[in-house]
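New to this. Help decode the following:
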Amino acid sequence: MKNAWEKYLRGPLFLYFEIYFAATILNSLIYLGKGVFEDPSGNWHELDRAVLVAIAVVAYALIKYVKINNFFLKVVTVYVPTLLLVMLYVFLRGLTAELAGTAYRDVFINYTAGFIFVTIVVLVATIIRKKVKKD
């Protein structure tokens, strides 16, 4: 179990907390900069962020650990289901609260941008790791 913790769980779990922490601090700073001292969406906003960050970290873990030789195929294989999961979550939230008119577009743009960033990081790390192993 310790090996599974070190190899598969530790990195994504810490990544989850780091991203959630950074997103929460950034969101709070933006609100404070606008003169808003309380989050108008309240606790639901925090829970939404937690779920969406969890989906993003699952996508990262899948890109990193799924064994598909073709990197492009691996990325598409991970992107499509995780994007659908994000959209499903937004749809389900729409059943309990009124969504902004641009909610789906906003989450699509934010998720895709984050996914591309994470994909580039994983690709660069993989290339570096392969070069180090060859040397």
